[in-house]
Known about the structure:
Blueprint: E1 2-4, E2 8-14, E3 17-25, H1 29-42, E4 48-55, E5 58-62, H2 72-81, E6 87-94, H3 101-118, E7 122-135, H4 140-146, E8 151-157, E9 161-168, H5 169-175, E10 182-191
Antiparallel strand pairs: 1-7, 2-3, 3-6, 4-5, 4-6, 7-9, 7-10, 8-9
Helix pairs in contact: 2-3
Amino acid sequence: MQSIQNPIINTIIIQKSKFICKLIPIQNISDTKKELYQAKLEFPDATHYCYAYICGSEIHVSDDGEPSGTAGMPILNVLQKQNLNYILAIVIRYFGGTKLGAGGLVRAYSNATIEALKKASHITLVPGKLITCSFSYSLEKQMEHLLSNTQIVEKKYLEKIIYKIKITNEEFEKISNQISCFKVEEEILIAK
């Protein structure tokens, strides 16, 4: 499964209309709502905020007032042709005064997405887990060694040490019999 590593923004101009494409890697559908809200704050006077996302088996498109099928579907088609998942593409349009027609809009929204994807670094996503692990201070070096192939996203030094870790399912299987102090927070996808 492929996605992009980092958010990307790219602008193209077609017949005086500005098309700003934001590509955002997402973990879940609630990420899309936050990102759409953020785009509207960032570009408050835009004419349209058209988008498409693929999040696992969930797919959604929006033409946001453009003629039906001229914005969201073309954006989605580009994402699908690239075999991308867990991605949101928002194309923000500032109308430049010239109507592009249905075919022109399809090409414009497709090209805005294609050009932004040229800047993106693609990554492979694998199933994983977000876990927390609590252990005594005396085990810290042992745990650091055991968790060397994981991504430790947070460390807390309280009465005990608490690590929040992103780990692939494959790596989890290897070490789960050696660690009894973990709690699975959620199933996630991890860049490999």
